[in-house]
Amino acid sequence: MAEEKKTFYITTPIYYPSGKLHIGNTYTTVLADAAARYHRLLNEDVYFLTGTDEHGLKIEQKAEKLNISPKEYVDQMAADIQKLWSDLEISNDGFIRTTDDYHEKAVQKIFQKFLDQGDIYKGQYEGWYSVDDEEYFTESQLAEVYRDDDGNVIGGKAPSGHEVELVKEESYFFNMSKYADWLLDYYKTHPNFIQPSARMNEMIKNFIEPGLEDLAVTRTAFKWGVPVASDPDHVVYVWIDALSNYITKLGYMSDDTTMFDKYWPANVHLVGKEIVRFHTIYWPIMLHALGLELPETIVGHGWLTMRDGKMSKSKGNVVYPDTLADRYGIDAVRYYLLRAMPFGNDGIFTPEDFVSKLNYDLANDLGNLLNRTVAMINKYEDGVIPELNTGLTDFDRELVQTAQDTIATYNANMQSMHTADALAAIWQLISRANKYIDETTPWTLAKDDSQADVLASVMAHLAAALRVVAILLQPILTQAPQKIFQQLGLQDSNVQISELQFEDLPTGGKVVEKGQPIFPRVDVEAEVEYIRNNMTGNGGKQTRSSTNPKAPKKITTKDEIVFDDFDKVELRVAEIKEVSEVEKSNKLLRFKLDDGSADGRTILSGIKKFYPEYGELVGKKVAYVANLKPRKMMGELSEGMLLSAEKDGKVTLSILPDEIAAGSELG
């Protein structure tokens, strides 16, 4: 009997179809897709679910404005979202819509079960409600409060910036408070339940310790929702309806629970940080009340923002994935999203960064390595990949070791969904392979017939490195790996990642006679301008503060200095080797740096609150002021200052490209 495969069940949030999805939404789905593809390459039985959350007042109002029924509206929106995922080659196994009949019936049964066992009670709700957020707020939770001349509260804004309105209506409430102690105990015994771990502390400090409030779970002010079977004047409010999708799609509360029995509990719920509370407080309590196991991990990722904050149509700073994919290809979009976003923290999209990663990472580093390798195998080996004989040059061992280290580092990071770090590891191998060409100088070996075997092995090493790169890239990029295999004349693109070895290079394959660039370089200025002009708002054009459309706004906040003043500052590059907290300080982090010297140096920096997951900075290259006079901070000596950027109260370290050597001087 064949051994039963290990299962892996991963979900995205179900998207609210009130508007077109942008690249921030797309990041969540692409990240989940990469995880699903990776686990399939581990020969696991994967189920990957995404979908749409289609009920609520906001949908009802949108449809009314368009003079169509809510169902007609969500049918079109769901079709658009499914097309987007198909166009981006998202490999989801299931797509759920909360208007699906099986889901609505299961939600009614779940609600009735809660009601029958006393978890839900009827009461009167009065509070501030945001239609856009589908969320209730107390007065103290509002980011801004409006008052009349007598000081009475008459409105306000939710933390999201959306307006709230006063709602008074009969409602059913879920008795969340009685489960608060159980949830705290669960957190303590399952420290990896919420990732990054800092999000768990947020839930405890902000919502549980102050006193967990009961949750309104029905509405009577609108009808577009799942009616309560025993009280049809009420419709089930968003969170019981939406959160239940993760189990109803598997057949929970249906006549066929085969999939539920197989895949539940989920391995990963992947959500944006704005809905972590609902997934890590309300959802676990609901599951516990149903007598079900909880998901293994809930990952709350950060936002992909713009320089001026969150993406917003009103700001004219929204970028859509199809705009980028149509012009630069699917792989460029997928690579950018999974490389630019640090795990758990916010990332910042800029047109310049997108084009830079396309030109330098994809075209220069990867594309050029492939082009050079194919051309040399054609020139020196008649287009045939020779046998791999390692150890014939002084540089073979380091290349092979880098490949082995890359495979191990990559697997560790993909298991924890740290895709940016997994990609960084792959690019270390790409960089090492490019360096290997310069070290072995095949053009010199080709001039000496006695070095023919060495030259052949050098070509094999390069092909082997590219084979490893292509296999590891398969969860991230959907097209480039196949193009690499095709150009190298290799056939084993479906090799299991768990079995990957550098030495297992198939020989005798014939490379293409003339390789085509898999990522053509683009004109930086033209493409940056193209992306800017395709941001929404102001007729698709961004407004600028200068009469010259290419002139940036001049910002000066300090007195001007002359060049001689600037020349006194010595800026250098270092690699972060270790980060730790400074005892008795709530601000300082201690950075141990490789600055190119024998002893390295230590710098203290007051950025602790901006990097709760500071361990993820290890291995990054940073800029620092090298000739700043050391000073004592909290009894410790700080030997310099790290360079960082600050805007709107947020501090971000200046992270430099990996290929810059530690100790390099900046100027």
TrEMBL record:
It comes from the Bacteria. Keywords: Aminoacyl-tRNA synthetase, ATP-binding, Cytoplasm, Ligase, Nucleotide-binding, Protein biosynthesis, RNA-binding, tRNA-binding. Residues 565-667 form the TRNA-binding domain. A motif ('HIGH' region) lies at residues 15-25. Its EC number is 6.1.1.10. It holds the Pfam family tRNA-synt_1g. Its main location: cytoplasm. GO terms for molecular function: ATP binding; methionine-tRNA ligase activity; tRNA binding. It catalyses: tRNA(Met) + L-methionine + ATP = L-methionyl-tRNA(Met) + AMP + diphosphate. InterPro entries: aa-tRNA-synth_I_CS, Anticodon_Met, Met-tRNA-synth_bsu_C, Met-tRNA_synth, Met-tRNA_synth_2, Methionyl/Leucyl_tRNA_Synth, MetRS_core, NA-bd_OB-fold. CDD domains: Anticodon_Ia_Met, MetRS_core, tRNA_bind_EcMetRS_like. One of its GO terms (biological process) is methionyl-tRNA aminoacylation. A motif ('KMSKS' region) lies at residues 310-314. SUPFAM superfamilies: Anticodon-binding domain of a subclass of class I aminoacyl-tRNA synthetases, Nucleic acid-binding proteins, Nucleotidylyl transferase. One of its GO terms (cellular component) is cytoplasm. Belongs to the class-I aminoacyl-tRNA synthetase family. MetG type 2B subfamily. HAMAP family: Met_tRNA_synth_type2. Homodimer. Is required not only for elongation of protein synthesis but also for the initiation of all mRNA translation through initiator tRNA(fMet) aminoacylation. This is Methionine--tRNA ligase. The gene is metG.
